[in-house]
Amino acid sequence: MNFRVGFGFDTHALIPGSGLRLGGVTIPFDKTFKAHSDGDVLIHAIIDGLLGAAGLPDIGNQFPDTDPAYKGIDSAILLKETIERITARGFSVGNIDTTIVLQNPKIATRIPAIVDTLSKTMNLAPDCISVKAKTSEKLGFIGREEGVSAYAVVLLTR
Ligand code: MG
Mind listing the pLDDT tens digit for each residue in 20-41? Predict the structure, then answer.
């Protein structure tokens, strides 16, 4: 079997608003992401990991933020489309391991819902999906609640 590893990263700024979209789940909060899409950093990191492992151009090339078709789009739709594009090239996902870095809100209790949503969107078993959340110990832009980052490692098989 042919194994391919991929890595993805994303950051979005926070602005006043209502709720964060993370892993396709809306989490109540008094801020939201500044973004062309819904700003779902976790899904964007996963998409870039998938594309990197498949040897495809990154998310900005696949879904340009200059294209009005993607304005305010639910990133789960982009993830589903990415899965279709890599499946068409003969790849299937082995597992993903991800970390969200944010100071607030606390999202530990939302992780099962995020895993469930990703599982359905990616057609991947929940035990092949790891989602972790950490703070930055109040350091830097994340600590000041100016933004949120996410990292994803992906294994593909062909
Ligand atoms: Mg993004």
Answer: 999 999 999 999 999 988 999 9
Per CATH, which fold does 3-157 belong to? Answer: 60s Ribosomal Protein L30; Chain: A; (3.30.1330)
Distance 75 CA to ligand 1 centre (A): 9
Q: Where are the domains of the chain?
A: 3-157
Query: How far is ligand 1, taken at its centre, from the CA of residue 57, in Å?
Result: 15
Smallest CA-to-CA distance from 94 within 128, 130, 47 is with: 128
Counting every residue, how long is the chain?
158
Residue 1 Cα to ligand 1 midpoint, Å, equals 32
Its sign, for the CA torsion 146, 8, 36, 114, is: negative
pLDDT beneath 50, residues of the chain: none
